[in-house]
Amino acid sequence: QVQLVESGGGLVQAGGSLRLSCAASGRTFRSYAMGWFRQAPGKEREFVAAISGTGRSTDYADSVKGRFIISRDNAKNTVYLQMNSLKPEDTAVYYCAAHRFYTLVARNYDYWGQGTQVTVSS
User: Fold this and answer.
1) CB–CB of 36/49 below 8 Å?
2) What would the pLDDT profile of 14-34 be if each residue is shown by its tens digit?
3) 40, 78, 95, 99: which has the highest count of C-beta atoms within 10 A?
4) d(CA 17, CA 7)
5) Do residues 48 and 59 lie in contact, with contact meaning Cβ atoms separated by under 8 Å?
6) Three-state SS letters, 39-66
7) Is the per-residue pLDDT at 95 higher than 80?
């Protein structure tokens, strides 16, 4: 079992930055690939970024490429999402998720956090 707790969301103006954190329980954190997903009101949950267990592999949605950076600190059991140059369309609830294998597909992830709200004002 892996428990995930996100933090770091909030209200920010367009062009600003936020860093989300996702703290994981358990002693096998490095065995899990981690992903960030988001869901805006009335829309389906969408992929944002993913990182492999070692941190050597990362992927990003085209909509955030060049603005967001995913990273992880396995010593702290934490994955981060640095979000820069935020746009109003980035407004959503952001979720972190864990899976044994590297994947960009939400339905493959076994464990999910409760989500953290990010609101970008214009």
Assistant:
1) yes
2) 999 999 999 999 779 999 999
3) 95
4) 14
5) no
6) ECCCCCCEEEEEECCCCCCEEECCCCCC
7) yes
